[in-house]
Specification:
Length: 190
Amino acid sequence: MAFASFTSVTPIPPSTFTRLGPRVPDGVAQAWHDHGTGLVGDGYFRLVDPARAEAMLGTASPLPSDAIILFTTAMADRIAWWNTMFLVAKCRLGEIHATSESFDQLIALMDDQPGYRDVIWDHQPYPQARDRLGVPDFEDCLMHVPLLKMGGRGDADHMHTGSLWTHVGLMTQLTGKPVFTHMLPLPTQD
């Protein structure tokens, strides 16, 4: 497994390897070792230290308490490993999607292939907001103001940059935890 492009931010602490390494799928601990935390590709996806994510979210996590957060996105989504599958929490939409793809397949789905990001990751209006505000810092995100579930318009002109962890906590407190709606929509093989 390899990211096509990766900008490292910090190493993953040894305590994360010890405590969580045995509980994650093949490839994850190797990615932690090879890359540490950082920005994948254009910065939309971020490989995070799950122990830090757990500490920052506390009881405000929108995911099951035993889910291991592996990635966040610049739009405040979280991708976690839980019960032999990946969960994608899209609090801004109030949804959780799931997939049983392998870690390598999940990484491949993060590529910026035509149609993947819109269909799979609901990544609009990230490109326009990124052009207007820049790529958010590693622990920041782009936020809809007001929140989508509170009447936000969902366009790039109404987005701001702020703390990822604070924003996730606020979304969870103000609009409720997201609910499972469907499996992650995957591209079909022709």
